[in-house]
Amino acid sequence: MTDQMGISPPPTARSEILLEARGISKGFPGVWEHLILEHIDFDVRAGEVHTLLGENGAGKTVIANILSGYYGKTDGEILVKGQPVTLESPRDGLAHGIAMVHQELMLVPAFTVAENVMVGLNAPGLSFRKQAVEQQLDDLVAHYGLQVDPRVRVEDLSAGEQQRVEILKVLFHQPEVLLLDEPTSLLTPQEADQLFKVLRAMTDEGKGIVFISHKMHEVFAVSDRVTVLKLGKARGTMPISQTNEDDLTRKTFGETVPDYMERPAVEFTENAIEVDRLIPKGLEKKAPASGLSFALHKGEILGLAGVAGNGQSELIASITGLSGVSSGTVTILGEEMTNRTPRAFIEKGVAHIPERRREMGIIEQMFVAENVALKDYRKTPFSRHTILNREEITRHAEEIVSRFNALVPDLWETECRILSGGNIQRLILGRETWREPPVIIASHPTEGLDAKAIRHTWELFLALRAKGSAILLISEDLDEVMSLSDRIGVIFEGGIVGVVEGENANREQLGHWMAGGKISAAA
Amino acid sequence: MELAHIWGILFISLHAMVPITLAAIGETIEESAGLFNIGLEGILLLGALAGAIGAEASGSATMGLMAGIATGGLIGLLFGVLSTTLRGSQLITGVGINMFALGFVALMLTLLGAPGFHSVPRAVQVPLIPLGIGNLSPMVLVTVFLAVVVWWVLRRTQLGLWIRAVGENPAAADVAGLRVNTLRLGTAIAAGMLAGLAGAYLSVDWFGAVTKEITAGRGFIALATVVFSGLNPLLALLGGFIFGLFEGLATWISTYPAIKKIIPWQFVAMAPYIITLLVVAGAIGRVRFPKGLGVPYLRE
To answer: pTM of the full predicted structure?
Structure first.
C-alpha cells in the first residue's frame, strides 16, 4: 500500500505501546467539588518522549501518579503492553517496569547516593551490596554523563545534583517506562540540556518516557508527541512536528478572550503597598540581584500572574509577616513594615487569603465559629478582658456563613476539616473581607468555587475596590487575573518580568512571560 | 574497697544493664522505622508477669522468657497496627499501654494470691553461671549478642537500610517500592518482643519475683538510653551499662553501714535516675532522629 500523502508516519507511531491509560478519571471526594481528571486517554510508546503539557492544576501530576501506582483512580483502565493491570502502589508499578521521578525529591538526605539507590534494590534482607552498587553507579555516571559521586551524602549535594540522583536512581533500576514530573524545576538550563541528552539516550534504547512540563521551550526540545491538559481534561494529542509554540500556548492557556469586569475609572494616587528591591528569605539564590519592586495603589487591583514556585509564596510571606525579608523594604500604608510580625500586619489592616487554605487559612480541628473569629477574637465585642463572648461570635459567624452561602452543618459542632475546599474558602473570604480592610492579599481566591460563587467573589472584590481597598491578586488562573485586574504583573523566578494594563492584556503574551519567555519575543 | 566489692558492683551493673538495653535496642529498631513507643514501661511490666506465670505453669525458665517475648510481641503488634494502618496517635497508644499494664498487673497479682507481690520458685528461675568471682546470668551474654546483631542488621544490611529509609522518608521508601506500613509493623513487633523479654528477665531471672513496681521506671530509662545512643544499639548497650553501674553502686552503698549513716539510701537510689537525666540532657540536640518519627504515613 502506498502512502498517498507521501509522508511516512513518524517512527514512534509504529512502535509498541508500552503503557496506556483508557478513560481514567479521578475525584477527591469532599476536598474537591469536581473531578480533577475526566476520562483521560493517554499512551506512551517504545522509543518516544510523550509530553504532558498544561497549567498548574491541570492534572498532569495526577495522571503520572496514577500511572505509577502512587495514586488510585476513580475510573478507567491501565494497560501495560496491551494487558490490563492493577496498580495499587508504586511497588506494583515498578514490578511492571514503570518508574516515576516525582516533582518533590524522594530522597533520604541522611543516606549516601548509593544507599538511596539501594533502598529500591530487590535483594535479600541480610545482604549488603553497597560496594557493588557504588561501582555500578560509577559506570552509569560515566555512561550518561551525570556527574555525581555515589559515596557522598545526599544532604551535602546541591538541588541540581539531588535531581540528578533521582534520575540515577531510576536509571539504575532500568524501567521500561519513565515518568518525569517537572524534572527541570531544580536544574540550571545547562543541567536541563544534559538531562535531555540522557532522555534521548534512553529512548534510543527503546524506553518510553512521559515528560511533564509547563515550559514551552523544553517541550519543543525534547518531545516526540505532546498532550495538552486543561482543568483535568485532555485537549488533544499531536506529534510535536505538527504544532508550533503559538498553537500550543493557545491550547494550554485557553482559547477564548475572557470577560473584563467593568469598573469605574479611578485616579490612583496613594500607595497602599510599596515593595522596593525585595528579596524574600528563601529566594536569595533564585531572585535577580535587583530583587522585586512594585507599588499597589489604594482602590487598585493588581494581578500577579505566574507559574507556581516562581517566588509568589515567598513574596506573600514577606508582605504578611509570615517569614523574613533577606533584603529590600516593604511599606504598608506609608509605614515601613519590613520584617514585622504577622500580628503587626493584621493590625495594620492587611487581610490575607492564603494559597494553602487548609494549612494556612483555617485550623482544621477547630469549629466553624472559632475559625470565623480567628482574627477578631481579641477585639470587642468578641471578647472582653480575655473572656470570649460566645453570643457575639455566634451572631457574627451566622452572618458570615449566610452572606457567603457557606454550607455548614453547625457553627459549634462542625470541625472545619470536614468541610469541602469551596466552603472553607467561603468562610475565609468572609473572615478576611467583612471589615473592608485597606489591603487584601488574595492567593487563588476562587480556586474550588463554582461559577456563581466566582462571580460573587469578583463582584465583592470590585465593591471593596470601590471603597478604597487595595487588592493584590495572585493567581495561576489567567482568566481571573485578566477579568479583575487594573494592572497585571508577571512574576518569574523572583522578579517581575513584565507589567501591562489589565484591560489591554493579551493572554498569549502573559503565557509567554509566565513560561519565562523574553519580553521582546511577545512585542 | 576490697576486690570482692568491685566484682559485686560489676555483677550488679551487668545484671541491671540487661532489661534497659534489651528494651532500648528494641525501641531503637522501631524508632529507626519512624515509630515512637512510649509504652515500654508497660510492656516490661506485662512481660514480667507473663514470664512468671509462664515459667510456673510450664516449669521451665526458658518457657517463662518465651511467654514474655510472646506477650511483648502481641502488645507490639497492637501498637503497630494502631499507629500504622489505623493512623492513631503513637503517644496516646503508648500511654494507654502503660496505664493498662499498671492496672492489669496489680489485678493479676491480687488474683494470684498476695496483692502486690508474687515470687517465682527458684526451680523455674534462669540458672546462673558460676564464675568463682560471682554468678552471672546467661541473659547478660544474650543481651550483648543481641545488641551487636541489631547494630549489624540496622547498619550493615539491606533490611536495615529499608527500615531506616521508612523512618527517614516514608514517601521515598514507598516510591522505591517498599511496603511502609508492613515494615513499620514488623519493627513494632520486634521491639515489643525485646521489651517483653526484658520484662520476663526481671521476674524469671534477676529478681525471681513480680511486684507491681518491679520495672521501677526502667522502661523510661530505656527510652532515655535510646536518646542518649542516637539510635546506635552499641551505644545503647553502653548506656544500659552506665545506668546499671549507678544502680550497682547505689545498691552497694545502701548496704554499707558507714555510708548509710551519712547519706539516706533514698538519695542514693535516686542517683541513677538523676545521672540518666543529665546524660540525656547532654545528648539532646546533638543526636539526630529520623525525619518521619512519630508521624503516620499517608499516601494521598
So the answer is: 0.72
